[in-house]
Amino acid sequence: MRRGLGGRRSLRVLALGLPVLALAGILPSGGEASAQDTHVLVVTGLGGDPEFRDRFYEWGEEMYDAALDAGVAPHRIRLLTEDPERDPERVQARSTREEVERAFQELAQEVAPQDQVLIVLVGHGSGSGPDSRVSLPGPSLTAAEYRRLVE
Question: Which pTM was predicted?
Fold first, then answer.
């Protein structure tokens, strides 16, 4: 049974289904791009309660695994979560503002012009327009700040 936008099933489709489709779309078979030209940054935000902490972590983990399954090299996948101690082999750092900015700086140094970058944000959000944000542990980044980081 499908639920509306407020239902859990739809939330999962919106939060996980679209990024997985995006990941599949950036790795065309036989095209110019390849998994070796792809970088993935997955940031899971502040869960708020144990149910959402677990859910956000699981979605981040699934994105990490999907990137690996698509052939992206592990050193080109960055996973930042609320609790990096949960899986130190996969998670590079806590998903704080500073660590997200550091991940973007590292990407800027590594990415070549022809490379593809997939950035996935998972979590609760608030605001609208350039002040929209995904809640991170500590101060959050706004949509305008993410735009600056991407540029």
Answer: 0.78
